[in-house]
Design goal:
CATH topology of the largest domain: Rossmann fold
Largest sheet: 5 strands, parallel
Order of helices and strands: EHEHEHHEEEEHHEHEHEHEHEH
Number of domains: 2
Shape: globular
Distance between the termini: 89 Å
Length: 408
């Protein structure tokens, strides 16, 4: 029995066989991820005997076996895709994703880790392409090639990424368990696509019922307004904690400012995680506490929500411009900067001093990267600068001295 009632499995892991071949260290990458993810979920849920992960390590593809696989997809609470070039080029992984989308109307249940990035011009099948992916790879600074994060080469980063993924999935499973969720029947919406027409019968069926029912929601979307006759929905997966739970300053030091750290490109994920850890150790509150939704409207709404609760906006910039979805042609980097500027926040931008203009082919990104406001200093110096600005005491007010010379 799964942890979430009404489902056969809590997590379905979808991957391409090539990504699970035995590597030079003698291990199969997806096998290990599935094993340690299962352990982390059991520990975080405290229900080790109830957590059920479907992971077909054999990847047999006989017709009868494929039917069995797809049935397990449809009866899983959460779908985890192992993104890679192999994933987008295999029909069976596309079939698994399509089966999940057709059976689910809640895209918060869809997760993706990226083992290796796609080549320029390649796309993940919708709706996966515009979703935030947890990147289990780093770009080697010497040879500028992507390297998969492994326990042997990147044990600390591997552990942090695994635990963050486990916590994201745990939050979703707990929310579904509280709702008493059963497998939804309507298909998942695709980001940027218009909603399907609703018949009068469907509209009647959508009216609040006496018993709680799971409400459709986009993955990591801003929290919906509560319906008057229905129980409040679970907190969205991406969301930072409620405003009252994340004060603009630490309780012990009321002058400490809240720092918002912008979403970064894949090559800077490790640096961003390092900055988050540094601020946490310094007792400096920072946002977001989780992943942002991907797609123009939801993404911008989430960023604006966190900007309203922040004092400083920090952005790490690298050689690449990042994704520019169809509904946000300026791209995620520029969009965040523009929103921070419109909100009147103090902006701190950073790039490596080793970068030179000739390294950047994209003309628009080159102008953004080498702008006057971007600090080209060592990363440790930049972190120290953020700490100084976030913890500096406000200027003391000049004492008011009353003039009694003219007193009678």
């Amino acid at each position: 029995m799964a942890f979430v009632p009404g489902y056969e499995n809590d997590v379905f892991i979808s991957y391409a066989h090539a990504d699970n071949e035995v590597d030079v260290f003698g291990g199969a990458w997806v096998d290990k991820l599935a094993k340690y993810l299962g352990i982390a979920l059991k520990q975080r849920l405290g229900r080790g005997d109830e957590v059920k992960i479907f992971f077909d390590s054999n990847r047999l593809r006989a017709n009868h076996h494929l039917d069995e696989i797809l049935q397990n997809v449809r009866t899983s609470a959460v779908f985890l895709a192992i993104g890679s070039p192999s994933y987008v080029n295999r029909q069976w992984t596309r079939d698994e994703l399509a089966a999940f989308i057709e059976s689910s109307n809640d895209s918060r249940r869809l997760f993706c880790v990226e083992r290796l990035p796609l080549d320029p011009g390649e796309r993940y099948p919708d709706p996966l392409n515009d979703y935030y992916r947890v990147n289990f790879w780093q770009r080697d600074p010497a040879d500028d090639i992507p390297l998969t994060v492994t326990q042997q080469l990147n044990s600390d980063l591997y552990y942090v990424l695994l635990q963050k993924l486990a916590e994201q999935i745990r939050s979703q499973l707990v929310a579904m368990r509280k709702q008493g969720a059963a497998p939804p029947l309507s298909p998942m919406p695709i980001p940027g696509s218009p909603p399907p027409p609703v018949s009068s019968h469907e509209a009647d069926m959508a009216m609040p019922a006496p018993a709680p029912t799971p409400a459709p929601a986009m993955m990591h979307t801003a929290a919906p307004e509560p319906a008057p006759a229905a129980p409040a929905p679970a907190a969205p997966v991406y969301a930072s904690a409620p405003a009252e739970a994340v004060p603009a300053a630490a309780a012990a030091d009321e002058h400490v400012k809240t720092v918002m750290i912008a979403q970064v490109t894949e090559d800077l994920e490790a640096d961003r995680e390092q900055l988050v850890s540094y601020l946490d150790q310094c007792g400096i509150p920072n946002l977001p506490t989780d992943f942002y939704p991907q797609g123009s409207a939801d993404f911008k709404a989430a960023v604006e929500q966190d900007l309203a609760r922040s004092d400083l906006f920090v952005q790490l910039l690298g050689r690449t411009s990042g994704r520019r979805p169809r509904d946000m042609p300026e791209g995620y980097l520029v969009a965040q900067y523009q929103l921070a500027e419109a909100a009147g926040r103090k902006i701190l931008q950073w790039r490596s001093p080793d970068l030179v203009p000739d390294d950047v082919a994209d003309e628009a990104h080159r102008a953004f990267l080498f702008g006057e406001k971007v600090a080209a200093i060592g990363f440790e110096s930049f972190k120290a600068q953020i700490r100084k600005l976030a913890t500096e005491l406000p200027p003391k007010a000049e004492p008011v001295v009353e003039d009694f010379d003219d007193a009678p």
